[in-house]
Amino acid sequence: MAGKGEWISFDNPQTVPNTWMIFRKDIVLDEVPSQLTANIAVDSKYWLWINDRLVVFEGGLKRGPARNATYYDEVEIAPYLTEGDNTIAVLVWHFGKNSFSHANSGVCGLFFEAISPTVEILSDRTWRGGVYDAYEDTGAPFPNYRLSESNIRFDARKAIKNWNKKIFDGRLSPASLSGSISDTPLGQLVKRPIPLWKDYGLAAYPDVRQSGDTLKCTLPYNCHITPYLKVRASAGQTIHMLTDNYTGGSANNVRAEYITCEGEQEYENLGWMNGHEVWYVVPEGIEVLELKYRETGYDTEFSGRFHCNDEFFNELWKRSARTLYVTMRDTYMDCPDRERAQWWGDVVNELGEAFYSLSPSSHQLALKGIYELMNWQRSDGVIFSPCPAGNRNQELPLQMLASVGWYGFYTQYFYSADSSFVPVVYDRVRRYLHDVWKTDNDGLVIERPGDWNWGDWGKNVDIGVLTNCWYYLALKAEQSFALQMGKTEDARQAAAMMRKIEENFDTRFWTGSAYRSPDYKGETDDRSQAMAIVSGLASKSKYPALLKVLQKEYHASPYMEKYVLEALFVMNEPEFALERMKKRYSSMLKYAQYTTLFEGWGIGAEGFGGGSINHAWSGGPLTLLSQKVCGVEPTSPGFRTFRVAPQMGDLTEAEASFESVNGEIKVSVMRSGKRYTIRLTVPENSSAEVIFPNGKSVNVSAGDHILHSTN
Hints:
Elements: E1 6-9, E2 19-29, E3 37-41, E4 45-50, E5 53-59, E6 69-76, E7 84-94, E8 111-115, E9 120-122, E10 128-131, E11 135-136, E12 152-155, E13 173-174, E14 176-180, E15 188-191, E16 198-204, E17 207-211, E18 214-233, E19 238-243, E20 256-259, E21 263-268, E22 273-281, E23 287-297, E24 305-308, H1 311-326, H2 344-357, H3 363-375, H4 397-404, H5 406-416, H6 422-436, H7 463-484, H8 488-509, H9 526-535, H10 543-552, H11 558-570, H12 574-589, H13 620-629, E25 632-634, E26 641-644, E27 653-660, E28 663-672, E29 675-682, E30 687-691, E31 697-700, E32 703-710
Parallel strand pairs: 6-15, 12-20, 26-30
Antiparallel strand pairs: 1-14, 2-7, 2-10, 3-6, 3-8, 4-5, 4-7, 8-9, 10-13, 11-12, 16-23, 17-18, 18-21, 18-22, 18-23, 19-20, 19-22, 24-27, 25-26, 27-28, 28-29, 29-32, 30-31
C-alpha cells in the first residue's frame, strides 16, 4: 500500500462513542482504468456508495490485528466508475469504546487511497462531509460492556437527504487533515485477511404476526440481519427494533430506534442483530407499508452435507452447521449476542467443524484468529483470549493449551494444508509452552491458575489431569511444527518431554479404575478420562474401565462433550457414542423453534454461563458424524490422502460430503446385516485408504468407487 492518502475527519477527530460521519468526493475522470483498487481504513465500520450504487455493505473489521494496528480493506471500484462525473460517498460508524472483540483507537475518520497509472483518488481536504447528527444514542438500557457496538437511534427529522447521491446539492464542510496514516492512533495498517461479507439482499419475512403494538417477524433461521421498514407517519414518533435474542446469553444485546419524519419514509438500521425473530414496536397511528430484512454473513458456502437413517442426527448436524455460521463474522465468536468475542476454546471446536461443513474460504477466519492470538501475546509470554480486546486480557490456561495444540493450530494446518502461519508464530508458541509453563521432577505439568483456571462449565472438573493432557497435545503439535521447520533439537526436546509425561502419567493419576488427580475430591470427571484417551496417554488395556466411567459420569458441558464422544469412537464404541450423543443433545433438539445449539444443555436454569441459544462450541457432533461415523479423516495435509474407516454403530445408512482444498470428497456407507457397501468419490490427484469394520483395507485412487465387504 502506497500510503499517500491522509487521515481525514471533521470538527477535530471525534472520540465520542457511537459517532457517525459522512464523507463525499466528486471527481471527473477522462477515462476509467481497467482496474482500480481502493484501500479503505476506518475505526470501525463503513458503507461505500459510488455513483448511487452500494458497493460495500458494512466494510471494515473490528480493530486489533495487533496491539497498535488496524485492518484496511481492498475494494475493486473500477466497475462502478464512469467517464465524466463521479461521486464517491462513505458513511463511517465509530464504535468509540473497547470491548471483548475490539480495541478502540480513539478517533473517527477515513483513509481512502485508490491509485493507478492514470487515476489517483486520495483522502484529502477536497472531501466534504461532517458528523451525521441524525444518528444518536438511545436511552437505557444499553448493550452490556462486552460489546463495542452501541444501540442506534436514527432521527429522520435530521436526515441529510441524498447526501450519498450524485443529485445532492446541499452544503457540507471540507475535511480536516490529521496527518499521514502512520501518524494517527490507527497504527500499522494490515490488509483484511478475510472476504467482505456476503450480502443476501433485502427480503420479505416468511411470516409476520401482531402482538399488541409489536409486529413479530419470523426469520428463516438464526442469522445476522439488519431490519428495514417503510412507513407512513407523522413526525416525531419512535419505532423500536430488536430481536428475540435481545437478552440472549442473559445480558442486553443491541437494539435500534427510528424517529419518524413527516410522510412516507424508509429506513434500514445498519447495525446487525441476530435471532429467529425481528420485533418492530410500532406506535398507534403509523401505517406500516413494508417490513424487510437483509441477511449478511461470512462469505463461505455450506458445501458440506451429512445424512443418515436416523433423523435425530441429521437435525443435530444441521443445527450445528447453522450455529457455526451464526458465530462467524469479524472473528469466530462464542455467541453473536452477549459477547461476539473470540474465545479460543470455542474457536478450536469451530475450526474443526468448518472443514466438514463449509467451503475453504472459511479457513481464513481461523488463520486470522491464530495471528491475532499470538500478536496479542503479553510481555510476560502469556497468551490470552478473547482477542483482539480493549477491556480484557485474562488467560484461561487450558483454553490456551488447546489453542496452540493438536486440536487448534495443528488441525488448522493439517486439514487446510496451509502451513504459512507456522514459522511466523512458532517462536512465540514455544515461548509460551516452555517459559510460561513448567514441569516437576517427574516431568508432569505444574498447574497454573493463570487469570481464570477454567476447564469447562459445570462441576467435577479435574484440572490436574486435564492440564497434563492438554499440555501433552500442545507438545505433540510443537514437535510436528519443529520437524516441519527443520528444528531438530526443538523436536527432540518436545519428544523427550512427552515421554516423561507418558512414563509418569499413570503413576500419578491412575487409580485402578479411573484417572484422578491426588488432591481432587469431586466425582470422577468424564472430561479427564476422555482427554486421557484422545491424547493417547491412556493405553488400550484401560479402555474397559474407562468405558464404565463414561457410561456413568455425565458432567461435561457441550464444549467438552465433544472430546468425551470422540474418546468413545477412539475406543471403537460407536454404538454407545451415538447413544450418549442422543441422550445429551435430546434436551436441546426438543426446542423445535430454534435452529441453533445452546451454550449449555438447556436454556434458563438448565444453561451454563449466560445460557445463550447459539454457541458453536456445542457443534462437536458435526465433526464426529462426518469424521468418525462416516470415517473420513486426512492422512496427509489437506486430504491429499485420507482414510475412510466408518464407525456406524447401529445406523444402517450414513453419507457425508465436503469440500477439501483438493476437491470434493463424498462417501456413502450402507450396511445390510454383515454386508457393507461404500460408495466413495476421491478428488483428482488424491488417494484414499478404505478400512471396513472387519479390518479389510482397500487403497483407491482418484475417481468414483463402489466397494463391498462382509464382516
